[in-house]
Specification:
By secondary structure, the chain is an all-alpha fold. The protein has one domain. Helix 5 runs antiparallel to helix 6.
Amino acid sequence: MSWWIQLIACGIAAASFSVLLHQPRSTILVSSLVSILGYSVFLLLKQSTLAYFLASLLIGICCELSARLMKRVATLFVTGAIVPLVPGVGLYRTMRFIVDGEYSDAVRTGAATLLGICGIAMAITISSVLFSAFWHRKANQRGASC
């Protein structure tokens, strides 16, 4: 499938999931754009385990910035934006291999899928922790100078 079709589908998926979760209308477009940005990094890095981590880190940072600028909670943006990156096909293939009795393929596919999921979780956590620590310190410095 062509890369630009994948990016359009990614934006539509992020927007659809955001609507499904009753996300405020003003945040849906931002979630979709952040998702497209992250997914483009994922495609450029050839969909590797590192690609999951770096794309999710970019999504996390962009969502944290968007949340601060729009005075919203970052979770609003992250939930919609991260959905196209979740390795659902890997989970499906792992289960299919188990059902078919192809256990070596199931282990290989399952391990790769779990690494991708762990990369996503670590990146979102790192971006959230770093951003909140930086933002909290900056707010404390402003309060002390007044």
